[in-house]
Amino acid sequence: MKKYIFITPEGNTTSPNNEEVENMQVIGIIEDVTNEDEALKKLLQENSWIFDCDFNVAEFICYEIK
User: Fold this and answer.
1) Which residue in 2, 15, 61, 64 has a CA-CA distance of 20 to 30 Å to 29?
2) CA 51 – CA 2 distance, rounded (Å)
3) Are 1 and 33 in contact (CB under 8 A)?
């Protein structure tokens, strides 16, 4: 079975000196799946907040990790 990490270029974060910074954000890590499509499906099923926060799933970047 494989493990995947999903990141997105959407969103911002606040730096230690309270400045807004554009960055990549980790959306989630999914384990025990056979491929990227299965990982995305599991990610979305287990994290309804992704849609609640209006993330664009098409913008997600997926990498297999060990």
Assistant:
1) 15
2) 24
3) yes
